[in-house]
């Protein structure tokens, strides 16, 4: 009964506007309940044990499928950005443990030989404010008053289209992305771009840098207090990190391949996630209908 829609809605209506529900005893005492006979209660409980176990089994299988697809996507990206698409290519030892063997014609290059860190304080407030989230760089809605807001954004740094921006202060839950927008972002973030005359494929390196977050490559090079969420990647460690550097035409082919494949996988994961949402709703309806007498549960 306590897991039914009717019970939850009665509680929710009385604690409306509270972000974390914490109903008091007086609120709970005001909630109406349906109390069938003890025999009927036992029959309903047995019915719900069986039905919810069936639904929970399906939910568990769906969650495993989504997890397996996510793992497949991660492995796909690692394989493509470190080994390329040609399975017959001769490999050489990269000399970097997390890269392993890499195509013999690829270079292994330090970040500082391809990228430069830039910090350009904008000084005005006529650009969009960009936030780094695990869904990428997003334009922040500063009118809604949601999330952390600054008193002024004049000391924020510039981010231009195709600049990379990363939260180098948090290697556990931070992220990195290649900007689709001109905007400004926190001066605490790291903004970097290809050196003039050394432009490569932005999408290829976006996949590579994001993989370094997902697989804790950046984390291994960090310093700080990890249990307090202060695990930072210092600029010198970052710039001296070695990365694969395929020929630019290969970078573009790898990025296009990953765009197509990850889109397919993410579509499947989204379908499974929607199935999970609908099945959880159905589970609540089953419970609600049983404990409120909307369906007749046979005894015995």
Write the layout of secondary structure elements.
Layout: H1 5-14, H2 25-29, H3 38-83, E1 91-93, E2 101-103, E3 107-110, E4 115-117, E5 128-133, E6 136-139, E7 157-159, E8 164-166, E9 176-178, E10 183-185, E11 190-194, H4 202-214, H5 217-220, E12 223-225, E13 230-232, H6 235-239, E14 242-245, H7 248-291
Parallel strand pairs: 5-10
Antiparallel strand pairs: 1-2, 3-14, 4-11, 5-6, 7-10, 8-9, 8-11, 12-13
Structural commentary:
There is one protein chain. Among the domains are: 1-33, no CATH class; 107-245, DNA methylase specificity domains (Adenine-n6-DNA-methyltransferase TaqI, Chain A, domain 2, Alpha-Beta Complex). The protein is 42% helix and 17% strand. The chain is built from 7 helices and 14 strands. The chain has helices spanning 5-14, 25-29, 38-83, 202-214, 217-220, 235-239, 248-291, and strands at residues 91-93, 101-103, 107-110, 115-117, 128-133, 136-139, 157-159, 164-166, 176-178, 183-185, 190-194, 223-225, 230-232, 242-245. A 4-stranded antiparallel beta sheet has the order 4-11-8-9, covered by helices on one side. It has a 4-stranded mixed beta sheet with strand order 6-5-10-7, with no helix packed on it. Strand 12 and strand 13 (230-232) form a beta hairpin. The chain starts with a helix and ends in a 9-residue tail after the last helix. 21% of the residues are buried.
